[in-house]
Amino acid sequence: VIAGNWKMHHGPSATRRFFSRFFGEFSPRFEGAEPTILIFPPAISLPTAAESRGGRPEIGLGIQNIHWESKGALTGEHSASMALAAGARFALVGHSERRHVFGETDAQVERKVAAAIRESLTPVVCVGETLDERRGGQVEEVIVRQLDAALLGVPEGAKKPILVAYEPVWAIGTGETATTDDVAEAHGILRRRLTEVRSDGFAQGVAILYGGSVKPDNAADLLAVADVDGVLVGAASLDPESFARIAESG
According to its UniProt record, in which pathway does this protein act (predicted)? Predict the structure, then answer.
């Protein structure tokens, strides 16, 4: 799974241009009918992305944030059902910027996961430690706590209900990239915890992505790490050429 988080970039016109170039000039090697590439545009660009994508089943669209309520006096928010109607089939939940810029809590992440699943959106649950937490030897404590909270929002018996993205906060938008050993350790922790909390079958069915300064020149190495099932790309997903190169790495 190769996922691109556009953050607050690319309005409708830029979104149309992106897809035109992505499909017209580059040809990533897609396989199967399940989405292998996910794109999370700004909410205002979701309908344009859905239109521009056409009927290509290998491209999945998602929303960058949802509220857990279905409606209400919540200025500026979007419900899971609204995201679904706009063309989203996935939802980022608990991204590091939501947690650290907007103060999103583990309890809120749990409610958003539950809301997404209730409306048939697949949550992409983001977890990751800060630099201070890493230096303090708290990596496992932090990412397990965040994962456990998110799993409280997943009904027992749910089939293939979530994706998980490990994004060390200190490597988001900084140009720093975790070493392959760092990534392998964190992804191994997450896979084991999924098994402990649910089952081995559940754990093996959850794709765990790595996010943190993923670029065309490091994507292949990251994707070769054990328990890395894909990448969550930030800045490098804004350019069709660089994103296509990363997609081809998978």
Answer: Carbohydrate degradation; glycolysis; D-glyceraldehyde 3-phosphate from glycerone phosphate: step 1/1
- Determine the 3-state secondary structure of 38 from DSSP: strand
Q: How many residues in total does the chain contain? A: 250
Say if CB 129 and CB 174 are below 8 A apart: no
Q: Which of the residues 10, 67, 95, 187 is marked catalytic?
A: 95
List, for residues 92-106, the tens digit of each pLDDT value. 999 999 999 999 999
Tokens 């990239």 sit on residue: 177
- Is 81 a residue whose pLDDT tops 80? yes
Taking the CA of residue 90 as centre, how many other CA atoms within 13 Å lie in the half-sphere pointing to its CB? Answer: 27
pLDDT tens figures, 17-27: 999 999 888 76
For residue 177, CA distances in Å to 152, 156, 213 come to 30, 35, 6
Count of structural domains, the chain: 1
Which member of 104, 110, 119, 167 is catalytic? 167
| C-alpha to C-alpha distances, 145 to 113, 116, 163, 193, 197, nearest whole angstrom | 15, 20, 16, 10, 12
Mark whether 95 is an active-site residue: yes
Q: Is 9 assigned a catalytic role?
A: no
* Whole-model pTM over 0.85: yes
Give me the residues paired with residue 93 across strands: 125
CATH code, domain with 26: 3.20.20.70
Tokens linked to 228: 């890395």
